[in-house]
Hints:
about 300 residues; alpha/beta; six-stranded parallel beta sheet; five-stranded antiparallel beta sheet; 9 helices
Amino acid sequence: xxxxxxxxxxxxxxxxxxxxxVIADIRGSxxxxxxxxxxxxxxxxxxxxxxxxxxxxxAETARSQSKDRVLSKHALGPDLxxxxxxxxFLLSEVYDAATVAALDDELIARPADPAPVPMSVTRxxxxxxxxxxxxxxxxxxGWMIEPVHKPDTPLWIWGAGHVGRALVDVLxxxxxxxxxxxxxxxxxxxxxxxxGVTAVPASDPTLLVPHAPENxxxxxxxxxxxxxxxxxxxxxxxxxxxxxxxxxATKWARFRSRLGGLGHSAGHIARITCPIxxxxxxxxxxxxAVGVAGEILRAGAKExxxxxxxx
Length: 311
């Protein structure tokens, strides 16, 4: 996780003066991790640093903050009505159009209080510049360092019907997903599409499959069984980390037979997951979306575990 620069820019555009409150450091237990942040403006807020009295008081303080940057210390004990027992350091920073436009798009490093750049921070900047090594959010020698967040899990959703829309509603707030949403015409999509979601109308969606990253996850749920089959065929000729198809066991049995007839082996066909989701949750689009979301998040976690083991 890192600093959501696009979200910050959008909030400043919509609300003008915005204060970003980020957990800079932790001692002991805390409801959220270092780097967790919320945005606060005069009439509202977004994001969370863990809720409770800590968040309420931090938001109230942020609305009246006069300094550009303030580092504060908070004990999570009886005084805040919280029993975590740890200590949290919060960095609150005021942004407007000028200050947010000046931010770097790779790494944000700044002192909590005015101070020269320490050697420890210089080393972090050098590793990013020379080796591409992105640091975790951290407070180091009085400087707060946060990489700019960039979604690193490509997810392609094929179909903008009821289930496709429900899936985008459920998944678009998740910070690590870079969602590409495909259907056959512009009017298939809703009028308002969440930030961070790229809608791509294409008369023949199968032609887009080769353009998907090889580590992408795919969810196939179009209005047409013929198109679903064609997409499965195209995906099996392309690399992917996960592919799921909406449908019944009967539908999948027919698809397996037809995909076999198109030259795919049984083992290769088995790379596609069908049915997807959790049938016990029911068939309401939002319930399907919840089940499918859980499945692809688990698939992503397994891939990360494999990477860690290889490393």
